[in-house]
Amino acid sequence: MNGHQEPRGLRNCNPLNIRRTADLWQGMSERQPDPEFYTFRSMAWGYRAAFIVLRTYCHKYGVNTIERIVHRWAPPTDNNHTEEYIQKVCILTGFARDVPLNPYNPAHMAPLVAAMSRVECGKKAVMAEVKAGWSLYIGNY
What is the spatial distance between Cα 52 and Cα 58, in angstroms, rounded to a whole number? Predict the structure, then answer.
């Protein structure tokens, strides 16, 4: 399969499809060809950004359960599949929708971003890339 057939999140090395804003991220590609979503230099950098966004959800907004995270990430106002998204992430992680997750615990966050990546991109996450993203992330706190 060539790069053009890959899901957008994989082509952009942005497995959770983080939308572009004025923010500048470490690990961003010099070229940003996608007008809507960031492009990162590698999947590890894309996962690192995802971990940081989810940590911000927890600290800034008090969002720390799968249900609340997904409602913020893919709200019903923008997405008519929010409930399916929540259910898939719960099945893939084994976590209940209302269990508080710790943004500093890799046993919580690695399965969460891997599951969200699977929902976003339609392909199973490569755990070595998730772990590489976690290694980049832990250097930020």
Answer: 10
